[in-house]
Amino acid sequence: MNSPQDSLKKNPQDASEPNGSPSSPESPLEEFENLTDQAAQQLGIDPTKATLDESRTLGDRFKTVLIGKPRDLTDTSIYHTLSLAAFLAWVGLGADGLSSSAYGPAEAFGNLITPTGDHTYLAIFLALATAITVFIISACYSHIIEEFPTGGGGYLVASKLLGRRVGVISGCALLVDYALTITVSIAAAGDALFGLLGTDWTFANLPPDQCKLLAEFAAIAVLIVLNLRGIKESVMVLVPIFMVFLLTHAILILGTLVLNVGAVGSTAEHITSGIRDGLEQPGFGLFGMLLLFLHAYSLGAGTYTGIEAVSNSMPVMREPRVATGKRTMVYMATSLALTAGGLMIGYLLLNIRPTHEKTMNQLLTEGFVDKLGLPGWSAAAFVLVTVVSEGALLIVAAQAGFIDGPRVLASMARDSWVPHWFANLSERLATHNGVFLMGLAGLAALWVTGGNVSKLVIMYSINVFVTFSLSMIGMCRHWYDVRRTSPLWRRRLALFVFGAVMCLSILVVTVTEKFEEGGWVTLAVTGLCVGLCFSIRHYYDRVVQKLERLSSLLEIVTPTGTPVAGEPDPKKPSAAILVGGYSGLGVHTFLNAIRFGPGKFDSVLFLSVGVVDSGNFKGGDAVKDLRQHTASSLDQYVDHARRLGMPASGFMAIGTDPVDELEHLCVAVKKRFPRAIFFAGRLVFQKDTWYQRLLHNETSYSLQRRLQWDGVPMVILPTRVK
Question: Of 482, 456, 470, which Cα lies nearest the Cα of 507?
């Protein structure tokens, strides 16, 4: 199949030749065309030389500086440089789970303190239960990676194993979850960093709370720009932050344990006496102790958020993807279990209690340096570096929302649950529409909640465990279904049953306990998203049913004669038809174009662009497959036209933006065939509504506006859909 560049090189003299019309016009239409060309030349316009205005505006130059230059799809190395090795995936995705140690353990530990007494002696058991839970959920998701190596995580698992209606619930929960990932991470980072400044300061006559909120808005805006540049580049910037966090918190946790080695006996006595007093306390007893423990354990659910990020982002993993994903899960689970459990034990050993002025981890760090006896400057430096690294890691954690959220959106777009343009890639090969939506949703949640971390964690945890629970239930069904063919089914089924019961228990307790404190908000928002998705899917299904009538006409209108040999003559009038895949809609546009100028056109040119989106952005081979598929569709159109007795040829391009690629393609073809008139089809509905314009792209109108400035005539032909 021809590319426009090949065509120009093939016959360069044709591009500079006059309109090629005969000296004696054959029809009044051609006579009018010649007179028009002569008038244009007198005005200094050459109608045979279409030129594309490549001048770059100030906005274009600013975009290049901010976002970067477009990536070359023919460079196969981009698929390697944009993918993440296990370590970088641990940084970009595992940071979401690891950063939850900034608020999850503190929330769980704080709930051991009740108005009726201090029950922090249960912290040692809480730390152990937290670590075990992290490893169980991580093990489950490692097996999910094995069964679903292409990614999709909770959305794909629920859709494939429990049905598409259940899948959209999981997908919507994930979308809300990832928007809240951005918000809660940035808000917690603000608490950590601004906690170092205290409360007795102002900036530009603004109180600390407002300054903190403005800084959090700015941080989200910066992350939007980073992610528009591309995945790997945003992760690479954050590697040093991640490593500093690991180092400082390893020193903090290990140092706290070492300093209290001599107090093991007294700590054990404190735990023993606390349990004994609790059992003997009237109205509390064993049952009350178990309820309190389960209450604190469930409300520390924020600790486990982010574990699913790896399975949702398998497309960005470096080959072999399954091995890379599972290795990343091991890194994430180990680091999170040790950090979260170690912090809880540290709170217990140093007798840390929650305050409103500082975070629990800052109080723990200050208590550690005091007990260590560091000099004033070195103690202040360690506290500063530790807290700043924690705040910075929380900013890193927001990356999971920007990496995974757009990918879930793209998967749902390919299934027609959300507008199809969410699957599009930018010229930087980023899912830019999803990045913008996640960023705006994060900003909205930050504004509505005022950056209240406690409220955000409640909302965040509920959606996470909705997805966890549906994924576990789906995998239970899977292993039960393969019980006759897999020798591992008993072991895997037992693991996922235990995981499902655990996740459902945490979900029920969190919703019950915190329904009025923000739980109802996240349930309402998720429910609204689900309802909207069902409405969009219903609309797309109706459009598809109507378009199938056109496709059914293919058998009737497809000619059976012998194809006419030969290529189109560049000197004669041609109808240039913009088409997609071979379908009834494309054939309908082709036939309408011929009827538009009966007897006018000597030949037909078909133009098509293969669009690289999130669905086929899998590597160099996938782009090659897309090129072959596009060429095959064009061949079918060319064959159809030749069987009707018209010389025909096809031209194609591959890119991420269909309007840009079509504009360049049309201009190049116009130079090769100066007498060509371009036609594009567009669906026209009996009742034009705002949501139809939102759910269908306006490619034809956008292209027509651009081609007008390039001097290329284009006609939009309607295809009526009732």
Answer: 470
Q: What's the CA gap between 125 and 705, in Å, rounded?
A: 67
Phi-psi region for residue 653, left (φ > 0), alpha (ψ -120 to 50) or beta?
beta
605 and 710 assigned to the same domain: yes
Q: Which residues pair with 611 in a beta bridge?
A: 655
pLDDT for the residue 238: 67
Say if residue 406 is preceded by a cis peptide, omega within 30 of 0.
Answer: no
- Name residues of the chain where pLDDT drops below 50: 3-29, 32, 35-36, 39-40, 42-45, 62-63, 65-67, 72-82, 232-233, 426-430, 614-619
Question: In terms of residues, how long is the chain?
Answer: 722
Q: How far apart are CA 149 and CA 142, in angstroms?
A: 10
- pLDDT value of position 200: 67
Are 510 and 565 in a shared domain? Answer: no
> What pLDDT does residue 83 have?
53
| Axis crossing angle, helix 360-372 with helix 376-414, rounded to the nearest 10 | 150
pLDDT at 386: 92
Residue 49 lies in a domain: no
Q: Which of 465, 457, 469, 470 is nearest to 521 (CA)?
A: 457
- As a 3-state breakdown, the chain gives helix, strand, coil percent values, each rounded to 5, of 70, 5, 25
Three-state DSSP at 46 gives coil
Q: Is 46 exposed, middle or buried (0-12, 13-18, 19+ CB in 10 A)?
A: middle
The model's pTM = 0.73
* Residue 247 domain flag: yes
* Confidence (pLDDT) at 474: 92
Both tokens of residue 417?
A: 């649950």
The CATH number covering residue 317 comes to: 1.20.1740.10
d(CA 167, CA 10): 52
* pLDDT for res 424: 62
CA 279, CA 285: separation in Å to the nearest integer? 4
Q: Which residues pair with 579 in a beta bridge?
A: none
How many domains does one find in the chain? 2
